[in-house]
Every structure is written in structure tokens, then in C-alpha cells.
Amino acid sequence: MNDDMHENELDILIMRVVEGDASTEEWDTLATRAAADQSVWRLLATAQRDQMDLARLGRVAASVADGVDAPVPRPQPAPVATTAWTGWLGWAVAAVVFLALVINSLTPPQPPAEGGVQA
Fold first, then answer.
1. Are 18 and 11 contacting, i.e. CB atoms less than 8 angstroms apart?
2. What letter would DSSP give residue 107?
3. Are the beta carbons of 18 and 44 closer than 8 angstroms?
4. Distance CA 79, CA 75 (A)
5. To the nearest 5 percent, what fractions of the chain are helix, strand and coil?
């Protein structure tokens, strides 16, 4: 586990150097680790080469993308006459249904008519 932790720290250190974010202390730490283990320089060189390859491929992809004429969708304006009232139409219908339910619940039931058939 201790070796894994040191490898993770080394990977992070190398990435910070490759990305240009390493501080002076981090460079010193890298140099100290490389003095003890020469393969650290090989790891750094490999990471830098990979970074350069990735940047080059990114430029190639961007160049290809710049050469593609993609269609630009044109927004279709909504008709103004219908949008003015359609937004409120659903609320108006809901209000009418609500009022019908409230009025129906407030109306007392009618007793059956004498001698007649209840409808």
C-alpha cells in the first residue's frame, strides 16, 4: 500500500510538471526522487511525449472540425396571435372545473318529488 501511495504521489507530481503547474518545491521533489530512481526521468519524458501527442491530435481534430460546414438551425418564431391566449387557456379550463366542483359540493341534495320518479 505504501508503494501505491508513493506511485500515486509520483504520478501527480509528474502530471503537475507536464502541465506546467509544478512549484519549485515540486520540481525539487521530482529531482530528489529521480536521483534515487533514474526511471523517474523516463516516466517524465513519456508523460511529456504523451501530452504533446494529445495536444497535436487535438489540433488535428480542431482543424478537421473547422473545415466542416454544419447546418445552422434557424429558430422558427411562434405565431403571436395564438401564444397570447394559449398560455392561459389551460388555467381557465382548470378554474371552471374547480368552480363546478365547489358549486356542486355546496348545493344541498334535492329531496325526491312526491309521486314522481327521481331523476
1. no
2. S
3. yes
4. 12
5. 70, 0, 30
Element holding 12 (H helix, E strand): helix 2-18
The residue to which cell 509544478 is assigned: 22
Spatial distance between the Cα atoms of 14 and 67, rounded to a whole number of angstroms: 35
Nearest to 46 by CA among 12, 21, 14: 14
| Residue 47, Cβ density class (10 Å: 0-12 exposed, 13-18 middle, ≥19 buried) | middle
Q: List the chain residues with pLDDT less than 50.
A: 1
Supply the mean pLDDT for the chain.
84
Distance between CA atoms of 8 and 2, rounded to whole angstroms? 10
User: Cell 500500500, residue?
Assistant: 1
pTM over 0.90: no
CA 82 to chain centre: 34
All 3 cell numbers of residue 4?
A: 501505491
| Per-residue pLDDT tens digits for 58-89 | 999 999 988 888 888 888 876 666 655 667 77
